[in-house]
Design brief:
single chain; mainly alpha; Arc Repressor Mutant, subunit A; 9 helices; 0% strand
């Protein structure tokens, strides 16, 4: 890699880091390219040259945030529900407010939809992997329903209700999510249809 290309990559990374931080801490509408450029220590035109507009920059920042989430979550072994609940709460404690704010603008800011859809798919895949024992023996509509229940029990809105609205501690939130998942696992009459 040439010195010029290496320098461009360093600049791009600084912009992406500043954008990720800006979107994590603020509302989409309140984040400006000018502020991100200042935080990254680059000219606004440099930012535009690298990323174009706000939508493209958000997509790149959301991809970076999503990769960080995936890296954290996929360290959990299948059916290690204690680790799953701890990891989930730690993840949401860091990214939950960003996700909630992004979901709040989904209907009117089309640029956020691809990142949210990717996050939804990734969350369901993780749930099916980590809580495999709770899905054992279920087929068809019963399996689909149980997956939906597990997704809901571990969703960012569930974390928000427990952690933010009900003000449970980290440990109590972990316990509550674990108990929700265990209740689903022990539920009888799931059937195969």
């Amino acid at each position: 890699m040439s010195t010029r290309a290496a320098g461009a990559e360093v600049t791009r990374e600084r912009i992406l880091a500043a954008a990720s931080e800006a979107f994590m801490r603020g509302w989409y509408d309140d984040v400006t390219l000018r502020d991100i450029a200042a935080d990254a220590g680059v000219a606004l035109q440099t930012l535009v040259n690298h990323f174009g507009g706000k939508e493209t920059l958000f997509a790149a920042a959301a991809e970076r945030i999503g990769q960080s989430i995936s890296s954290m979550r996929w360290t959990v072994e299948a059916d290690d529900w204690d680790a799953a609940a701890r990891t989930l709460v730690d993840d949401y404690d860091g990214t939950g407010d960003f996700i909630i704010r992004t979901l709040a603008v989904e209907e009117r800011v089309p640029a956020v939809a691809p990142a949210l859809e990717l996050g939804r798919r990734g969350h369901q895949e993780w749930v099916e992997h980590v809580f495999a024992a709770a899905l054992q023996g279920l087929r068809g509509a019963a399996r689909k329903r149980r997956v939906a229940q597990l997704v809901a029990a571990t969703d960012v809105y569930t974390w928000k209700l427990l952690r933010r609205d009900k003000r449970l501690s980290r440990d109590q939130t972990i316990t509550a999510i674990r108990e929700l998942v265990e209740a689903l696992h022990h539920q009888t009459g799931g059937g195969t249809e």
